[in-house]
Amino acid sequence: MERGGAVKPTDAQLEVLEAIQDFQKKHGFSPSIREIGDRTGRSSTNAVHEILNRLQRDGFISRKAKTGRTIQIINGGKNGGQ
Question: Model's pTM, two decimal places?
Fold first, then answer.
């Protein structure tokens, strides 16, 4: 944690955020869980889910439950505008 309560993303989280941003710029919509895994070298979709859950909990992304391709990056991927 950083001072002021803002959470700093881990290297894995930053890698996933970058993969999402790059995919969205190229295709105009969010990647699937498997596409995120492919782009970040993670073969386990469960590992990707865990990273996305932490990103959502910490306020870096939003997404709709049980709906694919709904990931939205909040504030350019920076928690609380930090």
Answer: 0.85
